[in-house]
Amino acid sequence: MTAPHGRGLLRLAAALDQQAAFDAASYVGPAQLAERGGLDFVTLGDTFARPGPDALAVLSRVAPATRRIGLVPTVTTTHTEPFHVQAAVATLDWVSRGRAGWQLDVSTTEGEARLFGRRHAAPADALWREAGEIAEVAARLWDSWEDDAEIRDEATGRFVDRDKLHHVDFQGATFFVKGPSIVPRPPQGHPVRVVDATEGPARRVAARHADVALVRVVGPAQARTVRAELRDAAAKFGRDPDTLRVLGSLVVDLGDGERAAEPGHGGGGPRQTAQGPLYRGGPVDLAELIAAWHASEAVDGFHLTPVEPHRDLERLVNGTVALLQHRGLFRTFYPGSTLREHLGLARPANQYAVTGGAS
Length: 359
Description:
By secondary structure, this protein is of the alpha/beta class. 35% of the residues lie in helices and 18% in strands.
């Protein structure tokens, strides 16, 4: 299967994070707004380090209230069972009819480790190696059901063709998974995997396993360098580098309306802060920045985190995105129904059906 549409299209995503918001319904309106703007996907962060609702459960609530936009929760791979994680992400893909993603993250603090009491905190490089193994076993478990494994033959009482279920028998450094999954193969085959590849330990995982890599950089030259490194590493892992989307991550403060961007925040590039690269200015200058970085092939698009969720997301969609659409730089409608289609990514072939792996 070929990619549904061209790889050079601008990709846009936004974060839905809200402080002290525990009602899942409060995330529905912002997701619907992002969908009206045609954004590829929205993300919702999650961590064991602070109180907050479960991101995957919240986006499962958002799924039936939206129709096209991709839904990408953060699900940590540390202190969680790989089998359960992949099943939950696969379930979100079914609930959303093929719009699920999964942002992989790790838990590095001793405080997070004490919540579970199973092991102590480990260095980031070890945890990201484990995350890579979990990304690999998740793909195998998603493939452990062939697409036509369900037969639902009422006459014989057979629900599934056992010859089309496969044991994965995966041995990682910290876990073993036999399989098969308890959830049939997701609509997308593999839900979209997203990794923040800014830090070194995560970059290898992104190059090998991610469909989307997020990078927090302050200028197009730096972004171009990181994108080239990720694409080169992907090729060394035997991947087609054109199957990896690299998005620049910016925190955006659009509270100044149409005022010109502050020095160092507009077309000259964002400013580095403790929260990441920050753009502060108007929607028009943000559109100029996005267009310039994309035209120079520094990034494939942007992942934007509003400083003030409701205000800035509205100005982003009705200002920045509308201007990009008017200029023909961003689509005005969804040509497909799945997140993979939005991103121009093919549905992966089932590795067991292709190789005839033994069950």
